[in-house]
TrEMBL record:
Residues 62-148 form the Intracellular proteinase inhibitor BsuPI domain. It holds the Pfam family BsuPI. The keyword Metal-binding does not apply. It comes from the Bacteria. It comes from Bacillus spongiae. Residues 1-21 form the signal peptide. This is Intracellular proteinase inhibitor BsuPI domain-containing protein. Keywords: Signal.
Length: 162
């Protein structure tokens, strides 16, 4: 009888403790460092779109090179912190015209399993350069995404190799 009460009590205790744990991380951690500034000038417009991190992907000017720049820009009015579960900050794939996967950046690579944060102030950007291997002539699609926990911020572009 004592064992039954002990098991029931232990189950209730563990159930109560489990309900106190957070369910998931926030979509993106936005830190408000400017509460006083906002109170002093509430109508100040900075031209920033509130509430979004904007990804972009563009080819770096060079007709013979397959080099691209992937950028994340903080378009919020507050500092945003991107959380990464490993040292891998981004990944990308290249597909041919028929949709066949030709190349994946992370394939065969290992990344350290340690959390990393990147803090972006309002209008601040984080960028990385992506140099692709040489491909046969044809049309290809490059898809790049962030490995941030909050959102992959996926971007794609089509390019031609002549």
């Amino acid at each position: 009888m004592k064992k039954i009460f002990f098991i029931i009590g232990l189950t209730l205790l563990l159930s109560a403790c489990n309900s106190l744990t957070p369910e998931s991380p926030p979509m993106e951690k936005v830190v408000d460092d400017s509460v006083e500034e906002q109170a002093e000038s509430p109508n100040l417009s900075t031209g920033i779109v509130a509430g979004s991190i904007e990804p972009s992907l563009k080819k770096i000017d060079s007709s013979s090179s397959n080099t691209f720049q992937y950028t994340l820009k903080n378009q919020t009015e507050r500092k945003a912190v991107l959380l990464f579960p490993t040292t891998q900050l981004f990944d990308y794939e290249v597909h041919d015209e028929l949709g066949k996967l030709l190349f994946t950046y992370s394939s065969g690579k290992e990344f350290i399993q340690t959390a990393k944060e990147i803090a972006l102030q309002p209008a601040e950007e984080w960028s990385t350069s992506i140099s692709l291997p040489n491909f046969e002539p044809g049309t290809y699609t490059l898809t790049v995404w962030s490995k941030a926990i909050e959102n992959p911020y996926k971007q794609s572009t089509t390019f031609t190799v002549e």
